[in-house]
Design goal:
The complex is a heterodimer.
Chain A (H helix, E strand, L loop, with lengths): L1 H23 L2 E14 L1 E10 L5 E9 L4 E3 L1 E3 L5 E2 L5 E6 L5 E6 L5 E7 L4 E6 L2 E8 L1
Antiparallel strand pairs in A: 2-3, 2-11, 3-4, 4-5, 6-7, 7-8, 8-9, 9-10, 10-11
Chain B lengths: L1 H28 L13 H9 L5 E3 L9 E9 L9 H24 L1 E13 L5 H12 L3 H21 L8 H9 L3 E17 L2 E9 L7 E9 H12 L14 H4 L4 H4 L4 E6 L5 E9 L7 H23 L1 E20 L2 E20 L7 E8 L9 E8 L1 H7 L24 E2 L8
Antiparallel strand pairs in B: 1-2, 2-6, 3-4, 4-9, 5-6, 5-13, 7-8, 8-12, 9-10, 11-12
Helix pairs in contact in B: 4-5
Classes of the chains: A alpha+beta, B alpha+beta.
Chain lengths: 138, 438
Amino acid sequence: MDRVVEIFKKIYLIFFLLFFFENANSQVIQKTLSYKKYNISFVNKMTCVFGKTVNEKDIIQVGLTKKGLFFYEEPFELNKKFNSISKKKFFVKKTWFGDYELKITDRKDKNSKIIIDFKNKKAKLNNEKGQFNSERCY
Amino acid sequence: MVKLFKYTLCVLILITSSLKAETSKEFNTDPNSAFSFAPAPGSEAQKFLKTIGLKEGYNDPKNNNGSTIYVAIGEGSATANNNSQTIHDARYNAYRRALLQAKSKYVQFLGVEISTSMENIVKENTMPEPEQIVERAVKKTTGNVSEFEKIKKLINLKLDQALKKEGYNKDDPKEKKQEVIKKVLASNEFKSTTRVAAQAALAGFQTFTTFEQSNAGDKVFITVVGVWSNKLNELANAIKAKDFNNIPAGTPKKPIAEQIPNDPGVLIGTFGAKMYVNENGEREVVAFGHASPLKEGRRDLLNNACKQSEIKAKADITLFVNENVYYTSELSERDISQDLQVNGKEQYTSFQGKKFDEKIKSIGQLNDASFETVDTKVVPGNSVFAASDCISIVKWSPSGERARTGMKNQTGQKNNNTFSGNNQKMNSRQGGSGSRDF
């Protein structure tokens, strides 16, 4: 009888541990909150790298579409506030000098500004950490 | 009435100028005004385009004798220094990178698919330290040492498999194992991603001209002005289809051999495939391939370099005729907060970062085409570039194709003419360009 109890004890232990390891591992919940798709043509597109510090860099992708929209994460109209899918607010206008001035308000309500010069392949970034000229744009 | 008009005009001018002044002032008082722009790498190319009445991007057929022209500028830098023996291969690869970038702009002009998404990833790690779990659990259930060992082995086996999935390997050093165990108790990640994808079959995209900068001590930087036009497209399609009657005729020029740059300073900076119009008004495609020998002073190695440069030139013609270009980029922004357990203590960290991946891929294919080697030139090592450069000039022509009929598998011949380099410092220079009859 004791022998049977011992065997059941072992079986119980093995099942318990097997169940435990199957369920005790890290759990990941991944949710796609929102998704959008666009088909556009780029008249101009530029990728710029800013060196904030030696170790920290920022990178942006901006463009102009055939239909006259501005592109930063998503295509949107000039001179009109735009709420992006990434929960940021964008506003872009063309300056007197032919550059584009993009104002960004991020999810934490922090403001930054990027001035984009497509013609000379340059950009400058202005945010709470300081002002940065693009290291390279291509 | 006139007075009133003059007055209104004056007021308007005053308002406009004050507005402009205000804007300029606003711009100048902006902290950004501390910045200034240095000449951009592609500015030489932009200037060149201005002189010939073209602009980067789409050029209206109305201004170009009914020909639709698209111009794209790309840049690339060499990975080797000028004193390296492989400098000319590195320069050629820089050229290819620049051309590919120019092509990717054209492909993106033709149309891209953009998808943007926002994700929230929550991670919770409820796994305690593995060895402790096994010992505690087994000891509780059985007091028998041999039984304990048996069960422990069995459990450990299962545990190892489960942990491997988590990046934990029992054979790893202790520090590494601790690293995995301590990694994350909980994390919350916001991730926004922008994906750009474009794909197009290109026919007739050629290198119009190249600009090369090679400052002392700096690596070579190459700017390519690439061009696509409907005439170039027709030529490429005719080569592919072997239908030479539909190639648009051009204004007769000098024989091709006389149009090819003969100045070593220009020739060394001339890359890729270009369309030329010959003395009969026929359009031909001429390509310039470059390669350096493995060592200087060895005839056999120089010959090998010349063979390689010939292959490169042929590859350039192939890509001109029939190429598929794929562009993809992914820019993700992450905002992560984490609860970590380090040495038994809980720590909180957060960071923001971006990840950018860009891929441009090109595949070319051309079957059963006839190439003719026009010339092979060698520019010896000099004060700018340590290594010799073997430049192969290869062409495709309708007359060559016709002559080939019935003579399949016959290849062209090459000359091994050499000439001395100018042994002078090479400043920023422009390579040769083909016919401008786009």
